Amino acid sequence: MEQDSQLIQQCLRGDGSAWERLVSQHARRIYNLCYRFTGSSAEAEDLSQEVFLRIYRTLESYRAGQGAFTTWMTSVARNLLIDHYRKTRYQRMTDSLEDAMPVVESKESSARRPDRHAMLGELSRQVQVALQRVSPDLREAVILRDLQGLDYREIQKVLQAPEGTVKSRINRGRIELAKVLSQMGVRAD
Amino acid sequence: MSWTCEQVEARLSEYLDGLLTPPERSDLEAHARDCVQCAPMLSSVAGLVRSLHDMEPLEEPPLLVAHILDRTLGPRQARRSWRWIFGWFDWLRQPRLAYGAACVALTLAAVLPALGFSWRAPRLRDLNPVNMYRAADRRTHLLYARGSKFVSDLRVVYEIQTRLRPETAIPAEPESAPSNGIKPRAPAGSSETPGPGPARQQNRVNQFPPSPVVIASILPGAGERSLP
After folding, report:
1. What's the rounded Cα separation, in Å, for the pair B32 and B10?
2. Is A188 helix (H, G, I), strand (E, B) or coil?
3. Conformation bin of residue B128: beta by default, left when phi > 0, alpha when psi is -120 to 50
């Protein structure tokens, strides 16, 4: 975190190489967040660029005392993701029926791959499909908690929601995701 | 206090994240042990959380960082260094490509000299396809001529040896043999070859080297051989 603070100070002084290091350190995290939320690598790449563009423009507004840089950055990304979701809602409704097809294929193929790495890769794809069937509120809570590894307090800051709401969303999101995976015939354990 | 299924479901994640107090934890576990609905749900969600935590983060696209920097810092031609220039050649580092390139280099190293190209004094005109063709043609003919000459020479030597070797020479000339002064040629390896001559005759043959005249008389074409 200290390293982030130093890099941010250097960025604010106009040091381009500090910004480059900051982007390199956090690009994967932001890309994963965008990908898990949207389910599309192309959209995730575009959104990741937008996130960093917004971070670059609003870096002066970051206050280290308010929380970790990663939390602030995740909050910026989450706001963009929600905006993006609202803009593309209609398109997603029309696409939702088509999502059902690859699930059966992935179930078949997972049975043929005995090694754990391949199984985790297959499970990752299935979780991705299942995540798209969970409501955005619950989805983002599960992504932030279980895939981004934020704690409850950080998630409260990102979602700007009270503790009870965050706990409830994480809990309902997990249960919902487990049910969807179960309906898909996937055993997560 | 015994928990209800609704309570267990509502606080399942707090249990999995270790946020319950020890008594609450015990109560939840006690209910889940006996409940046919809550036990599979607890197992399923716990497995899901474990799997999500085990998942490796996906790799970002290779040019994502470059695109972000381009959009934030602007096009970075001035900041491009030799690493950026040679970054385009990263694909050359694949082993399969390296083996292929090595094979091509070895082939060129072997073939180009045969086509008249000199590595010590390289000239551009040596790479002209017409010149390369002529050089290859000349070298091919030269090689063929040398080969032919070598085979002919071997044949002459073999014939001479066959003639002068006592065991292959004809010891007793029959009366009816042709009188042109040349003994009939015995086929090499023939079973009709007579046995070795007397020791005196063998010594006399070894004393004198074969004369060119004799060779020419044995092989009419031997004296006329030359390169084509």
Report:
1. 13
2. coil
3. beta
Query: A63 to chain B, minimum CA–CA distance in Å?
Result: 21
* Residue B49 contacts A, CB cutoff 8 Å: yes
Q: What is the pLDDT of residues A29-50, one digit of tens each?
A: 999 999 999 888 899 999 999 9
Cβ <8 Å between A189 and B47: yes
A174 to B48: CB separation less than 8 angstroms, yes or no: yes
Which band of pLDDT confidence, cut at 50, 70 and 90, is reported for residue B168?
Answer: low
Single pTM value for the model: 0.56
CB B104 within 8 A of CB A85: no
**ipTM of the modeled complex:** 0.77
In which element (H, E) is residue A76 found?
A: helix A69-87
List domains and CATH numbers for chain A.
1-96 (1.10.1740.10)
Supply the pLDDT for residue B209.
53
Task: List CB contacts of A53: < 8 A, sequence separation 6 or more.
Answer: B68, B71, B72
pLDDT of residue A113: 43
